[in-house]
Amino acid sequence: MTMEVDILELSERSAKFILSNASAAFANGVRRASLSDVPTLAIDDVNIYNNTSVLFDEQLALRLGLIPLTTDIEEFVPVEECTCGGAECPACKVSLTLSAEGPRMVYSGDLVSSDERVQAADQNVPIIDLKEGQKVVLEAIAHMNYGHKHAKWQAGVACGYKNMPIVTFENCDECGACVNECPKNIIHIGPNGAEISGDDILKCILCKLCASVCEIDAVTVSEDEKSFIFTMESDGSYTVQQLIINAGTTIKEKASRLGEILESL
Amino acid sequence: MAYKCTRCKRNVEIDYEYTGIRCPYCGHRILVKERPTTIKRIKAE
């Protein structure tokens, strides 16, 4: 059977879809690839010219590192894979500068990038609150790398899935116990006893409280092992669509690399 | 090493042998080390 994708919600940053006719191993592969194998840009080195703020230089650098930057996967390559050999060429490095004087709050939008394609994904991430006379002048150097190196390079955040729930009601006596017990309030009494209508089944959390409370064992809760409800969120470096495509591409590349190795044996 | 007296704000040298930690101009005993003007490179992690 061929794999099917049924999109429930799709916005720039997040997506919800049903992946059916796929194995749990593949679903987990997509999840893991989007978390750790899609390279993204993040601030890696910080040259501090002046810092009279209340934060230590290291703390300030850490905060800068965690700011998501918009990335074009076609234009940049991870430092280790770059042809320059770690010498930091424009293909693997982007420089951003920050110069601010108090009193004011410094936001990620105040970072001035040397490359217009690379900007802070959100303009309103607070970096530091400067008081009267405090100053911060620095140059931040962003590198591309993978999520398995450091969490700041994770393009996918809050990626997860659950199996498609299957709830069946047989010989229901309409006592209404399961209706009151359900924490998601998705069960209601229909013409043929208790039922879950339409897309409400997607809200089921497989807690099985309805089955345990039913005195005549009319409710059975199970899951479809070949079908998954996926939720994916991007940190803003890519649109969620690009993120899933890139995750799929990395899985494909790895599989073909494995094939090449096995063939050469 | 340049230090700064927190009371008279003057740059002072510390004389370890004779006066110890004390401002030679005003006698104040709280001195702070100024931030060097060099560029500091830090790993963001």
UniProtKB/TrEMBL annotation, chain A:
Its EC number is 2.7.7.6. Its main location: cytoplasm. It comes from the Archaea. One of its GO terms (biological process) is DNA-templated transcription. GO terms for cellular component: cytoplasm; DNA-directed RNA polymerase complex. Binds 1 [3Fe-4S] cluster. Transmembrane segments: none annotated. PROSITE patterns: 4FE4S_FER_1, 4FE4S_FER_2, RNA_POL_D_30KD. InterPro entries: 4Fe4S_Fe-S-bd (IPR017896), 4Fe4S_Fe_S_CS (IPR017900), DNA-dir_RNA_pol_30-40kDasu_CS (IPR001514), DNA-dir_RNA_pol_insert (IPR011262), DNA-dir_RNA_pol_RpoA/D/Rpb3 (IPR011263), RBP11-like (IPR036603), RNAP_Rpo3/Rpb3/RPAC1 (IPR022842), RNApol_insert_sf (IPR036643). [3Fe-4S] cluster binds at residues 204, 207, 214. Coiled coil: none annotated. It holds the Pfam family RNA_pol_L. Residues 163-192, 194-224 form the 4Fe-4S ferredoxin-type domain. GO terms for molecular function: 3 iron, 4 sulfur cluster binding; DNA binding; DNA-directed RNA polymerase activity; metal ion binding; oxidoreductase activity; protein dimerization activity. Keywords: 3Fe-4S, Cytoplasm, DNA-directed RNA polymerase, Iron, Iron-sulfur, Metal-binding, Nucleotidyltransferase, Transcription, Transferase. It catalyses: RNA(n) + a ribonucleoside 5'-triphosphate = RNA(n+1) + diphosphate. Signal peptide: none annotated. Belongs to the archaeal Rpo3/eukaryotic RPB3 RNA polymerase subunit family. DNA-dependent RNA polymerase (RNAP) catalyzes the transcription of DNA into RNA using the four ribonucleoside triphosphates as substrates. Part of the RNA polymerase complex. This is DNA-directed RNA polymerase subunit Rpo3. It comes from Methanolobus vulcani. The gene is rpo3.
Automatic annotation (TrEMBL), chain B:
It holds the Pfam family Zn_ribbon_RPAB4. Binds 1 zinc ion. Its main location: cytoplasm. Its cofactor is Zn(2+). One of its GO terms (molecular function) is zinc ion binding. Zn(2+) binds at residues 8, 23, 26. Gene3D superfamilies: RNA polymerase ii, chain L. It is found in: Cytoplasm. Its EC number is 2.7.7.6. One of its GO terms (biological process) is DNA-templated transcription. InterPro entries: RNAP_P/RPABC4 (IPR006591), RPABC4/Spt4 (IPR029040), Rpo12 (IPR023464). It catalyses: RNA(n) + a ribonucleoside 5'-triphosphate = RNA(n+1) + diphosphate. Keywords: Cytoplasm, DNA-directed RNA polymerase, Metal-binding, Nucleotidyltransferase, Transcription, Transferase, Zinc. One of its GO terms (cellular component) is cytoplasm. The keyword Zinc applies. Belongs to the archaeal Rpo12/eukaryotic RPC10 RNA polymerase subunit family. Part of the RNA polymerase complex. DNA-dependent RNA polymerase (RNAP) catalyzes the transcription of DNA into RNA using the four ribonucleoside triphosphates as substrates. This is DNA-directed RNA polymerase subunit Rpo12. It comes from Methanolobus vulcani. The gene is rpo12.
